[in-house]
Amino acid sequence: DLNDVTPIQDAINKLLADMMVASEYGAFPQRYIISSVGVKGKVKNAPNEIMDLPAAEAGDQPTTVGQFPTADLKQYFDAINNLVGAISAITRTPHHYFFNSGGVPSGEALIVMESGLTKKAQDRINRFIPTWQRVASFMLRLAGTTVSPFDIVPEFEEVATVQPRTDVEIRQIERNVALLDQQLGVSQQTLLTNLGYDAEAERQQRETEGADMAETMLTAFDRDGNA
Hints:
This protein is mainly α. It has helices spanning 6-27, 74-91, 107-113, 115-142, 164-183, 188-194, 199-226; strands spanning 31-34, 64-67.
């Protein structure tokens, strides 16, 4: 991941250093005096300072003063922004992670903008799972317990950008689809599979939630009864 963008990052660092030098030069621009009459030493430059320069002799170049133009810093910003955009595309990092666009995107827009990053994260998880399975199996073996790596399930946080309102809308849509599929005679396991859920894990979670709710109600009943 880093090898693909390290040269681009080096170019950004070089442009930033050049921009800092150019900005320093803009704060203290270089000035010049052209005169056929010798001007001894450096001409003092300070607020309210008046320079008395002798005029040129007849037939000589007129005495001229001026300063060299400074570089336009916008060209550095444009170049840096283009390279940052390349890093964003190569690494699948959403553009708003690098720049403040000035507006707050909606929840749906965030999900679309971060879809590439979530897919990349899920791909990395899929690659890491076998390694973590072997690591956990090895650690258990050191502890005196033999467990096959295939019996170990590494758990990761859900790779998704979900907003509260969007999550509620998704649940509502799933419920409507569930009612429709039940009317059509489709099993609950098939429904969960079609929605992209692990049917067995979802069933166990619902059983756990039901058991917890029953335990809570029983505890409340015992408390009221004792009172």
